[in-house]
Specification:
The complex is a heterodimer of chains A (214) and B (10). In chain A, 71% of the residues lie in helices and 2% in strands. Chain A is mostly helical and 214 residues long. The mean pLDDT of chain A is 96. The model of chain B has no long low-confidence stretch (mean pLDDT 66). The chains are: A mainly alpha (214), B little secondary structure (10).
Chain lengths: 214, 10
């Protein structure tokens, strides 16, 4: 555990708190992509299957349970809550996320470090996480004015990915036998997807106006 | 517990 990894995990946690707060406090999920949230739920389930048979640390296990719980809570609110579900902008959330799932699964079957059931599913979760934000980014472009909480949620998610890259650089330079090419390449692609969003987020923040993605 | 296969990040 290093400071970048811890900061990354806490930023990830904070992003989920911000999103849940927006949904619960405003009773609205306007501008939030249910497709992205469902992809994250799939990512967490397939990656954290190891909760059943492996133990790394209490910290890891608790965080896994928290991430799983928050992902399913968010999906529950957006799809089933009697008030919140009516605020979901279905017509703006049209990204074909099934292609992302299928593509990630094919890639995981082709490129993995061990051809076992759990390892392939874990690899699938890495690939799927890399692209899971795409429906949300497309939806932001279509939404026009984006409220602060939704903008901050995506910003925090991007920050978390950036901090993980610093964590890998730190670990690579301090640990022996630390090498995880699949995670690194996917993570760099994932972070790059936020570049455009970051540009407009910081620009609008600088000019002190609400976030609009042209 | 079985030690995992090197996936120690979240």
């Amino acid at each position: 555990m290093n400071v970048f990894r811890l900061a990354g995990d806490l930023t990830h946690l904070l992003s989920l708190v911000v999103l849940l707060l927006k949904i619960v406090a405003t009773k609205s999920c306007r501008g939030v992509s249910a497709k992205t949230q469902e992809l994250y739920a799939i990512v967490f389930v397939t990656r954290y299957l190891d909760l059943l048979f492996s133990f790394v640390s209490l910290y890891n296990s608790v965080m896994k349970v928290v991430f799983l719980g928050s992902a399913f809570s968010i999906v529950y609110f957006m799809r089933y809550h009697k008030v919140v579900r009516h605020t979901y902008d279905r017509e703006l959330d049209t990204f074909r996320s099934s292609f992302l799932v299928a593509g990630s699964m094919v890639l995981a079957l082709l490129i993995n470090s061990k051809y076992t059931f759990f390892e392939v599913l874990w690899t699938f979760s890495i690939y799927l996480e890399a692209v899971a934000i795409l429906p949300q980014l497309v939806m932001l472009q279509r939404t026009g004015n984006i409220d602060n909480l939704t903008g901050n949620y995506v910003f925090l998610l991007g920050m978390y990915r950036g901090l993980y890259i610093l964590n890998w650089i730190y670990r690579y330079s301090t640990e022996r036998r630390y090498w995880q090419m699949i995670v690194w390449v996917s993570g760099i692609i994932q972070t790059a997807l936020y570049a455009d969003f970051f540009y407009y987020y910081l620009k609008c923040w600088n000019e002190n106006r609400t976030l609009v993605i042209p | 517990a079985i030690i995992n296969e090197g996936h120690d990040e979240l």
